[in-house]
Amino acid sequence: MANAVLRGRAIKVGDNISTDLIIPGRFAHLRSNLPELAKHVLEDTLPTFTSRVSHGDFLVAGENFGLGSSREHAFVVIKTSGVSAILAKSVARIFFRNAINQGLPILLCDTDRISDGDELEINTTDGHVTNLTSGIRLSCSKIPPLMSAILEEGGLIPYIKKHKEFLFQN
Amino acid sequence: MGKTLAEKILSDKSHGDAKAGDIVIADVDLVFLQDTTGPLAIKQFKESGFESIAKPQRAIIFLDHAAPSPHRQLSNDHAFLRSFAKETGCFLYEVGSGVCHQLVAENFASPGDIIVGSDSHAVTAGALGAFATGMGSSDTAVALALGKTWLRVPESFLIALDGTFPKGVDAKDFILYLIGQIRADGATYKALEFGGQGLARLNMSQRLTIANMAVEAGAKVGLFPSDNVTFRFLAAQSRGDSYRPLHPDDHAEYEQTMHLNLAQIEPMVSLPHSVDNVLPVSKAKGVKIQQVFIGTCTNGRLEDLAIAAGILQGRKRHPDTRLLIAPASRQVLAQAIERGYISSLIESGGVVLPPGCAACLGLHQGVLGDGEACLSTANRNFRGRMGNPEAMIYLASPATAAASAIAGEITDPREVM
Fold first, then answer.
1. Does the beta carbon of B212 lie under 8 angstroms from any beta carbon of chain A?
2. What ipTM score was computed for the predicted complex, to two decimals?
């Protein structure tokens, strides 16, 4: 997993950003060419995203981020663009699992307290965000231990490659 | 303490006592991939170090989203999926067979199953009492390898139904109404469980429409108990032996209960660009429509085509409105031909597309132009969904779609029935 403390800049998007807005179906022919697909990430809603984003930035969203299709490519192209964590008020179910499975922190907090361009420091271990620009500290909701374990290993595929099964007992 | 449908199925499949909020490792009865998310899942499967599929006879690949392929790269993806199916022994449904969710309902899903599909509308099979849910490629790859997945046992909303639909109103109007009430994230991580006296009067086609759109309220599953309707559907598909009774316990605990009378639902339409932006059709009348699309896993079944053909028979589509029809499966197409629905639809000026996802996801077969409006019987109207972020998508029932194709504008089907 990435460092427990991450520092970066916020790039904000709004509420209800669907996977169709993150990476539209019309680019399905590029799904086996992820670097090429990543050139189109968020282009229908934030056309400046690919030129603005730099390595380590945080994507900061509102409610119900990533609703819609199960396409994991939507998460992969965000990760490929250099984003090091996603913060949102709420996240759609499949997208949330996809994020953990790809080994990138996704934290739920009150993102109204973050403005576009703010400098943030995220502590993924105890789950809080410090807005270095405004001085506000935000706490994030916790994820279940199994999800933390998957995140620790860098995602579901590395986790399964190592353990060959889910270590969790019913 | 009684159990909900979700708790019952997950207890059974995790060999324990599953309660809402628990995390369980559950046996998976069916894993399926489709052609636009499957290639990544297979690459991840190979990367995970597994060489064989846990249950090859219960692993299916569907070529439906880009079928027939409109791109060289997608054709190569299809070839990759075909060769994986040959290597591992899993079954592959070729181009033209139909939409994965319809084929899962026709051929595989049974009450009490756990089904994982690399497509969010995998929830459709909940109509048959299967705990069916969409997952990303990593989760699907691991389900293929292990024959198991992890699940958080969801809290359930009970949607208790009463009454019967009035003339011109159908399952699509109901589910759009419900999503308008719950909102697009109101049931995130939850199970929607349908019950009540009204259930017995909903046929399997209507149940599939309703379960299909559970995910549009954020839900993990949309579950129906099993009953005579379930048994008759399975028996008609020569699968009567896979029927089993499945009901929630009397004292099951629901996070929320909603009582709805189907007699009070009217034709509904979802306006651009979100599914929960719902209005009665009577309040959206007159919006000009350049394309009507009837089909998909939501409303491409025989009963849907029967309704559309009944309205369009002997009438013509409006000259400014294209009419596209995509039957949900080959079985649906064959039966619709036999019953004369296809003749009625093409004589009215309709274009029949091959069984599959067709225009729904913006890849091909009906991509919209700038500023155009489409009235679709599909399940999503997100901006850009049908291939153009400058187009508008309205969602409605097959009856509203057929009536609107004749008038060239959004029309209440009760005016033409």
1. no
2. 0.96
| Count of domains observed in chain B | 2
Q: Is A63 on the interface with B (CB under 8 A)?
A: yes
pLDDT digits (tens, 9 = 90+) for B145-178: 999 999 999 999 999 999 999 999 999 999 999 9
User: Residue B4: which of B119, B117, B126, B182 has the closest Cα?
Assistant: B126
A163 at the B interface (CB within 8 A)? no
pLDDT at A2: 47
Instruction: Give the residue numbers spanning the domain of B330.
Output: 270-415
CA–CA min distance B137, chain A (Å):
6
Instruction: For residues B50 and B144, state if they share a domain.
Output: yes
> What backbone phi and psi angles, to 5 degrees, belong to A60?
-115, 115
B73 touches chain A (CB under 8 A): yes
Domain boundary among B223, B242, B262: B262
Structural domains of chain A sorted by starting position, each given as residue range(s) with its CATH number in brackets? 5-144 (3.20.19.10)
Which chain B positions have a beta carbon within 8 Å of A93's beta carbon?
Answer: 188-189, 218, 220
- Residue B311 and residue B191 share a domain: no
For B251, counting Cβ atoms within 10 Å of its Cβ (0-12 exposed, 13-18 middle, 19+ buried), the class is: exposed
Same domain for B275 and B241: no
Rounded to whole angstroms, what are the CA distances from A71 to A24, A31, A66? Answer: 10, 10, 10
Q: Is A101's Cβ below 8 Å from some Cβ in B?
A: yes
Contact check, Cβ <8 Å, A168/B141: no
pLDDT of residue B323: 98
Residue A50: Cβ-neighbour burial (10 angstroms; 0-12, 13-18, 19+) = middle
* Beta carbons of A72 and B137 less than 8 Å apart: yes
- Residue B263 tokens read as 């007699």
Domain finish residue from B241, B262, B283: B262
Q: What is the CATH number of the domain that holds B283?
A: 3.30.499.10
Quickly state the pLDDT bin for A169 (edges 50, 70, 90). low
A166, B150 in Cβ contact below 8 A? yes
The answer to whether residues B254 and B274 belong to one domain is no
CB B50 within 8 A of CB B39: no
Whether residue A115 contacts residue A64, with contact meaning beta carbons closer than 8 Å, is answered with no
Rounded to 10°, the helix A156-163/B38-47 angle is 30
For chain B positions 99-158, those within 8 Å of chain A (CB to CB) are 117-120, 122, 134-139, 141-142, 145-146, 148, 150, 152
3-state SS, residue B88 = helix
Interchain pair B39, A26: CB under 8 A: no
